[in-house]
């Protein structure tokens, strides 16, 4: 199998070499061209440079909240504190079934076990009956 792959790869490489040789005959070198911006583009560039020179760097500015913003923040903090004060952690509560519920559960479990035993006995009897018939 490796020989087949190697043969296919070599034939593909040789065919691509022939195609590349034909393509090199069609490659044409073009003369160098110089591109200059138009007068509009030069004017636009000059306007941009001029506008950038007008940019002024200001000193640092300190922003302080207004009285209304301070009052709003204080109200928010007070409401948040009030919510935290109203949260109450209750003790753990354990719920135990009543005597009636325990009796009902025991009856259900007993019925399920009886049904399982009856079906198991029926399967065993059917298997014995088939064995005797043979």
- Which percent bin holds the helix content? over 70%
Question: Which parts are unreliable, with pLDDT below 50 for 5 consecutive residues or more?
Answer: none
Q: How many helix segments?
A: 4
Whole-number mean pLDDT: 82
Order of helices and strands: HHHH
Helix-strand category? mainly alpha
Overall body shape:
flat
Largest sheet: none
Amount of beta strand: under 5%
Radius of gyration: 47 Å
The strand count comes to 0
Distance between the termini: 59 Å
Describe this structure in a few short sentences.
This protein is mostly helical and 134 residues long. Helix content is 70%, strand content 0%.
Please describe the topology of this protein:
Elements: H1 2-25, H2 39-53, H3 67-86, H4 99-133
Polypeptide structure, described:
With 134 residues, this protein is mostly helical. The protein has a domain at 108-134. It contains four helices and no strands. The protein has helices at residues 2-25, 39-53, 67-86, 99-133. The longest helix is centred in the last third of the chain and has 35 residues, at 99-133. The model has no long low-confidence stretch (mean pLDDT 82).
